[in-house]
Amino acid sequence: MSASTPRNDGPARPDGTEYPVQKPEADWAAELTPQEYHVLREAGTEAPFVGEYTDSKTEGVYSCRACGAELFRSAGKFDSHCGWPSFFEPLAKDSVVYLEDVSLGRSRTEVRCAACGGHLGHVFEGEGYNTPTDLRYCINSISLRMLPAAPQT
Ligand SMILES: [Zn+2]
């Protein structure tokens, strides 16, 4: 795993409001595993092709592993073959927030949980995937927790 964007912008979301879920960093560190903490709170990146949800086709809802907010649905997931779980849309427009990330010397758009500010990954557009939005939300599995849909009865 490698670091990308250090989180140094405090409790404010890009629109100036505060994240509704806030805890001292020591509490996050106690609740999350070191790997989860590194990605969610220090904007690290999981190695490609190792995440538990990379190829998952299970139907259900993906929530933030830090705070439990619902972020993505399996219906919005697609096969990007990029090595990370990829979605073409979040569960709702306001499920996530976006920040400019210039950490690799080029501009990328970081995606964070709108509830707690946990780092999720990045979003890329115009790559030509055959999806409804032409967006690829490239998300770390370790930032998510998947709750499978109840089986049909
Ligand atoms: Zn969250």
CATH topology (fold) name? Metal Binding Protein, Guanine Nucleotide Exchange Factor, Chain A
| Helix vs. strand class | mainly beta
Strand residue percentage:
25-35%
Number of domains: 1
Adjacency order of strands in the biggest sheet: 5-6-10-9-8-7
Query: What's the total number of strands?
Result: 11
Ions and ligands = zinc ion
Uncertain segments are 1-6
Q: What would CATH call the homologous superfamily?
A: Peptide methionine sulfoxide reductase
Reading the helices and strands in chain order gives: EHHEEEEEEEEEE
Largest sheet: 6 strands, antiparallel
The number of helical runs is 2
What is the second-level CATH architecture?
Beta Complex
Arithmetic mean of pLDDT: 92
Helix content: 10-25%
Return the CATH class: Mainly Beta
Protein name: peptide-methionine (R)-S-oxide reductase
GO molecular function: metal ion binding; peptide-methionine (R)-S-oxide reductase activity
Organism: freshwater metagenome
Domain MsrB: 25-149
Protein architecture, described:
It is a single chain. The protein is built from 2 helices and 11 strands; from the N terminus they run βααββββββββββ. It has a single domain, classed as Metal Binding Protein, Guanine Nucleotide Exchange Factor, Chain A (Beta Complex), CATH 2.170.150. The strands form 3 sheets. The chain has a 6-stranded antiparallel beta sheet with strand order 5-6-10-9-8-7. Strands 4-3-11 form a 3-stranded antiparallel beta sheet, with no helix packed on it. A two-stranded antiparallel ribbon has the order 1-2. 10% of the residues lie in helices and 30% in strands. The radius of gyration is 15 Å and the shape is globular. It is mainly β and 153 residues long. The longest helix is centred in the N-terminal third of the chain and has 9 residues. A hairpin with a 6-residue loop joins strand 7 and strand 8. It binds zinc ion. Zinc ion binds next to loops.
